[in-house]
Specification:
The protein is mainly alpha-helical. It has one domain. About 80% of the residues lie in helices and about 0% in strands. The protein has nine helices and no strands. Helix 3 runs antiparallel to helix 6, helix 6 packs across helix 7 and helix 7 runs antiparallel to helix 8. The longest helix has 25 residues. The protein is globular and about 60 Å long.
Amino acid sequence: MIEALNRMPAYRRLVTWQWSHNSLAIDLIRMFMGVALLIRGVAFLSDPEILEAFAGDRAVSAAKYYIIWSHIIGGGLLLVGLFTRIAALSQIPILVVAVFFVHLPGGFATENQSLELSALVLVVLSVLAIYGAGKYSLDYRIFYRDLTASPGG
């Protein structure tokens, strides 16, 4: 099998390119997640009834402003890649509640597929919390660039 792959120069170039640019994928996912959370936070801020419709008035009222501002601030931080792990970790409790307590009782394959989407967002945020931002981020430019620089220059 390996010999067959070695005879495929186009595939080999693709794999080589992918390995040298693997940070680009995580950065694109991070940026998309940041935009999505930012939009969701602004939607909740402009119409809090959307948030209350998910879980009821009492359950959400105590955490409403944490959810809204965590999505807005955390989404913005994820978008630019600043304090990425902290921003992702701040979202995880919200998504755990959304998945296991709000959407799971309704089951899979509902009309708006909220369980599936919330679970996907939870997984992506968990990956970002573990992996971090990537090369195309403020985290990398501020904190990590010096660690990867070659000695003497």
